[in-house]
Amino acid sequence: MDKKNYKWLMLAFLFGAYFLEQATRQVYSATLPQIKSDFLGLGVTDAMLGSVGAVFTIVFGLSLVGSGLASDLFGRKRVLLIGVILYSLGAIGSGFAQSVGSLMIFYGVINAIGQCCIAPPCYSLISQYHVATRSTAMSIFQSAVYLGIILGSVSAGTMASLGPGRWRWAFWVVGALGLLLVLVLAFGLHNEIQCGSDDSTEEKATVKEAFLALTRKPTAILIALAFGMFIYVSTGIRIWVTTFMVRTFEGVSLSGAALHSVFWQYLGAVIGCNVMARLLDQWGKKRPRIRLEISAIGLLLCIIPIIFIARVSTFVGCAVALGVHGLTMGVYEAGHYPAMFDCIAPRYRSATTGLTGCMAFVMGSMAPLVLGWISDRSSMREAMMSLGWFYLAGALILIPAILWYFRIDFIPNQEETR
Fold it and tell me: Least buried of 69, 101, 202, 368, by fewest C-beta within 10 Å?
């Protein structure tokens, strides 16, 4: 098969791996109410269940940098296959778990290490094979996130709602699908060929060089810290929102909560991100700082729907608030990476993305545990309400960058091409 046709077939394979990764990640959140019900005799608390999500997030974050390096050293196809095998085995093992400790090992560690091995080699392969079609290919690939979250949540919630112990089938199904996908990828993807990015002849930066480049840019550091606040909230919501809806609104089924807790939110995120991204491309030509300013505004706007999610008295009202929250999340995300890249030279951007992602996920890793702890001592409404403070902190962190540092750290386009 020639390269022109293969690049689209390859994209389909990578889409499948990313889709299943996101679906696998969502299974725990969607089945959490039934897991707690089955483990109730063991004295399991919300904080204990939240600690599983905390372990997953911190392991995932710490492993991000290593997975990117492994792709360069050992081959992208090889790392991708290992990643799918690990998250599939982690999912299957989670289905056999008899305690929170077992879930930590299988879901929190093995599954997390496998999942961090998916995005870096996939983005690298897409960048290599898609040059003129890169934006289209990456937008298609990114849609796997939203579809995986929505369909994974709905499917897992539906299985779990069938009765005690049925949540285990959700893990077994995604694990089995993952192992089948390994065979498809092994035979369908071409063997690794050595080639760098088609759009650059520069040697890739090392992690050390990228770290030094990052620390010399106060704006980039502040953006990374604000991103950590954002990841804290998004991680907490992703783990607990289905449970929150089941507990808070009478008559809501587990399958219904699993659907509505993610569908409206990520629909809003798609709309908010795409619309604001187009506007920023236009506004940024005359005022580059607008991307950073919109990031801060987006975080402030996120506070309002969080308050409504925590306080609204009806299920429909909560779904609407989740949709608005997704919209405001999309506004923030549209400005985040462009603002970061305005301050980081092109050759450091890939490694810097891994470093800042690692930092953010480590910062956000305690959210599932903290929200569970608040729920045990107060209520899930109060736990959700607490997330607004992290959005406020993220917006305040960006103020010094907007007022002082950005004009110093900004790299004009003409300097980037030297």
Answer: 202
Written as six digits, the tokens of 401 are 């960058």
The residue ranges of the chain whose pLDDT is under 70 are 1-3, 72, 131-136, 138-139, 192-207, 349-351, 413-418
Residue with tokens 């005690």: 164
pTM of the entire structure? Answer: 0.81
Contact present, 348 and 292 (Cβ < 8 Å): no
Structural domains of the chain ordered from first start: 1-189 (1.20.1250.20), 205-407 (1.20.1250.20)
CA distance 114 to 238: 19
For residue 122, give the 3-state DSSP assignment: helix
Please tell me the distance from the alpha carbon of residue 317 to that of residue 323, in angstroms, as a whole number.
10
Per-residue pLDDT at 204: 59
The 3-state DSSP class for residue 99 equals coil
d(CA 219, CA 405): 6
Q: What is the pLDDT of residue 134?
A: 59
